[in-house]
Amino acid sequence: MYLKADGTEVWLKSPLRVPYLTISGLIDSSDSYGEIRRRLCRAYKLLYGIASDDAFIVKELQGSCLLLFCARADKNCALILLGKFYGHGNQKPHVLESLVQTIVSSTGEISREAGAVLRFEVVQPELAMCGD
Are 33 and 71 in contact (CB under 8 A)? Predict the structure, then answer.
């Protein structure tokens, strides 16, 4: 986890200034994290160096936006919408319009691939900037 100046923890540790939205939760399974991680690695590309622990690319969305699933050995997890997910000027947000549907369908898909139930409880709706 990344500790921000206000004391809150975040998942990303990118050296770049990147906007993101995150929904945190838990992996509910009697399987070890090692077993769950192996299944996730078969289904998704592991993204190195962007998160404090494991980060898997679930979907590449419109523009330069990624939906990541991050997980730790203690089975804490997060769905992170990373990148530019809003339009310029008067344009409508292109990714945010279907965000809830994207999260629901992705959560179901990740749960099937991991062989575990995902329980997302904490929503951090603010746009945050990590980096320098």
Answer: yes
Between 102 and 44, the higher pLDDT residue = 44
Strand order of the sheet with strand 54-61? 45-46, 54-61, 65-71, 76-83, 18-28, 117-130
Token pair in block for residue 40? 């996730």
What distance in Å separates the CA atoms of residue 22 and residue 80, rounded to the nearest whole number?
Answer: 4
* C-alpha to C-alpha distance for 122 and 132, rounded to whole angstroms: 25
Angle (CA) 41-8-86 rounded to 5° is 65
Distance in angstroms (rounded) separating the CA atoms of residues 31 and 58: 21
DSSP string, 65-103: EEEEEEE-TTSEEEEEEEE--S-STTPPPTTGGGHHHHH
Please give the backbone phi and psi of residue 23, each rounded to the nearest 5 degrees, phi first.
-125, 120
Is 32 in a helix, a strand, or coil? Answer: coil
Q: Is the pTM of this model over 0.85?
A: no
Structure tokens at 32: 């070890």
